[in-house]
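Justification of resources, computational component.

The compute hours requested in this renewal are based largely on the per-chain cost of generating structure records like the one below. Each record pairs the submitted sequence with a full structure-token output. That output is archived, and it is also reused by downstream analysis tasks.
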Amino acid sequence: MAEELKYQRILLKLSGEALGSHGVNIDAETVQRIARAVQRVQHLGVQVAMVIGGGNLWRGAEAAATGIDRSTADYVGMLATVMNSLVMQDAMEKLGMITRVQTAIEMPPVAEPFIRRRAVRHLEKGRVVILAAGSGNPFFTTDTAAALRAVELNAQVLLKATKVDGIYDDDPMQNKNARRFDEIDYMQALNMGLKVMDSTALSLCKDNHMPIIVFSLQQEKALEAIVRGEKCGTLVSDDNQEPV
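The structure output for this chain reads:
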């Protein structure tokens, strides 16, 4: 008998920095560890889509501050996400997983273009779909792209992996008295200016009732715990939405 899971289809958002370690932009061991974590939840029967940022290689906003045209800087950032996605794909396929990279900017020799119905079909067939190049538009973050794709693909939850185990009212790395939230609603997160996601991504999730769970991938078997419905990280949802 198959295990009963709270979430059968998830979108996992990783920052580009999550792929690096000790000053290395892309650390092979870290990438392999993330791939194995995804493989474990996939073996439970979970359909997994992923969005990976490009901040370990390029930051469009910072580059724009040096005088580069913002649109150009953002397009370069989109290409950085494609690089990260291909690296993740390679690590997963070495574990025997079947994957597809789909890009918001067409580049046929490298990956499929993003086509929603095709992406859904891949998920239904048990393939991990890695969604690259953001939304294909400058001035939008990969957080917003993750929120958009989560809604488009009818994911049941958007999981944002960070360096800390949830959302705090201050930086827990700097303030040992920072308070962690177990649950918070979208408006609280927006009004308090908490660095969950940018306001566009949060508003998109709010408007479409897409729950967000912020957690740490450093926590052993956190992904498995979340898809089983165990409390892990911080849940961001409607104030009347059923809590995890």
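The two ends are 23 Å apart (CA to CA). Residues 120 and 153 are 6 Å apart (CA to CA).
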